[in-house]
Design brief:
ABC_transporter-like_CS; cell membrane; six-stranded mixed beta sheet; transmembrane; elongated; Rossmann fold; alpha/beta; single chain; ABC transporter transmembrane region fold; 15 helices
């Protein structure tokens, strides 16, 4: 083009830098809108999952908030629609402007060429030069236009890439150390030791300082964000012992149970199993050593068989049935038309609370852990369900180190050792009888529950509390 006419070339490509700058500006604008649209999509997805879940639907019905949930969804959906429309219009306006320019620019070329044709310039051009130049110009504008469009679209796509790679680049808070060792359940007796353990969920080096843990959340509610969830806690649980942890809500009991399987790492101090620091144990093998039963055990929206196989993926049908029988849930499973292939629904809503707990216990039985952690495993159940779950827990606890978190002291009377936690500190430890004799915090908590009008009557089975719970006098029948 320069060979044909440098004057026409300047006019033809002189505005190209302006369009390259505009493409970067429009691309950055679309990128910002796309990033906001991604956040809006995530929020809309969260709202959908919340409101359409079984728990969400029940909550909305119970409080009569169906219309407000619909309005919330419509508001977020409209916000997302507006963002998508803005993103498209921002690009389309630029593309339209570019097309208009590419369509009109030949007019300027013809005007200048006509002037040069009649000899109005230093270098007059011929009619053949004009035809050749405009042909080259059209061939030049098309790829330039496509490149500018790709540039704008790429800028918008980078917002999605940033979000994806942002997740991919997140380093795990808890990971294996380079010299981590593997321990099989057969190698482990099951002793657990805490040495001067301190945990602060808001500490910069804490693995989950942004998420805030169970007791850390209680501290935040009280405006005590810097409070230690655990402060200098030391104890040792011998292999095969039933160790119970009691104390007020937010005292630090659940934090202790989280530290053993390394759901969190201690800010200071160490936790060891059979003398081996848990940070030196391969995470996969550590998970194989520990079984965890919570107050509300999680079940997948899958069949009973698939939920049980989560405990041992290689278990046979006979293994599944043996575990289910040990957990007193087999008879209930076979009552379903599809038996072990019955889909339990979201979070196991097709089962009662006690049935979900027994199914979770069967899953842990298949897991065959050396250390069992029970975090208020029966506190949310009625008396009948609690008895079934307690019966299921008996064979599971036998021969294993058991860590029991309890609010109801009646469930841990026969524990080998009871640790009393308050405000992150270990206040007392001993047997039930020893702690009562000391007249400390444990005795105070015990008096509140047993002498505070909560005893309903006495029967041959034990002490019946006002909530229907039975306190078993026989240590063989008393467990969490």
């Amino acid at each position: 083009m320069l060979v044909l006419s440098w004057e026409l070339t300047i006019v033809a490509v002189g505005t190209a830098p302006v369009f390259f700058w505009l493409s970067r500006f429009v691309g950055a604008k679309r990128r910002a809108i796309a990033a906001e649209a991604q956040r809006s999509t995530a929020e809309l997805t969260a709202i959908t999952q919340e409101t359409l879940s079984i728990s969400g639907v029940m909550l909305a019905k119970l409080f009569g908030r169906q219309n407000s949930e619909i309005d919330r969804f419509h508001h977020q959906n409209q916000k997302l629609s507006d963002l998508i429309l803005r993103r498209q219009m921002t690009g389309q306006s630029f593309f339209t402007l570019m097309q208009i320019f590419f369509s009109v620019s030949p007019v300027a070329i013809y005007l200048l060429a006509g002037y040069l044709l009649v000899g109005g310039g230093v270098n007059p051009v011929s009619a053949g030069t004009i035809v050749a130049f405009t042909t080259l110009q059209s061939r030049l504008y098309f790829p330039i236009g496509r490149l500018l469009e790709v540039s704008v679209e790429l800028q918008a796509s980078l917002a999605l890439f940033e979000r994806i790679f942002g997740y991919l680049d997140i380093k795990p808070d808890i990971s294996d150390e380079s010299d981590a060792i593997e321990l099989s359940p057969g190698q482990v007796a099951g002793s657990v030791r805490f040495d001067s353990v301190r945990v602060n969920y808001s500490a910069p080096n804490n693995p989950d300082s942004d998420a805030v843990g169970p007791e850390g959340m209680a501290a935040k509610k009280n405006g005590l964000e810097s409070q230690w969830a655990l402060d200098g806690v030391s104890f040792e649980i011998k292999a095969g012992q039933l160790a119970a942890f009691v104390g007020p809500s937010g005292a630090g009991k659940t934090t202790i149970s989280y530290l053993i399987p390394r759901l969190y790492d201690a800010t200071e101090g160490s936790i060891s199993i059979d003398g081996v620091d848990v940070r030196k144990i391969n995470l996969a093998s550590l998970a194989g050593l520990i079984g965890y039963v919570t107050q509300e055990s999680y079940l997948f929206h899958a069949s009973i068989r698939e939920n049980l196989l989560y405990g041992d993926g290689q278990a046979s049908q006979q293994d599944l049935e043996a575990a289910a029988k040990a957990a007193y849930i087999h008879d209930r499973i076979v009552e379903f038309p599809e038996g072990y292939d019955t889909v339990v629904g979201e979070r196991g809503y097709r089962l009662s609370g006690g049935e979900r707990q027994r199914l979770a216990i069967a899953r842990v039985i298949l897991h065959q852990p050396r250390i069992l952690i029970l975090d208020e495993a029966t506190s949310a159940l009625d008396t009948t369900s609690e008895r079934y779950v307690q019966s299921a827990l008996q064979p599971l606890m036998r021969g294993r180190t058991t860590v029991a978190i309890a609010h109801r002291l009646s469930t841990i009377i026969a524990a080998d050792v009871i640790y009393v936690i308050d405000r992150g500190r270990l206040m007392e430890q001993g047997t039930h009888t020893e702690l009562l004799a000391r007249g400390g915090l444990y005795a105070h908590l015990y008096q509140e529950q047993f002498d505070g009008g909560q005893v309903e009557c006495y029967c041959e089975d034990g002490v019946v509390l006002s909530d229907g719970q039975i306190v078993y006098p026989d240590p063989e029948e008393a467990f969490v």
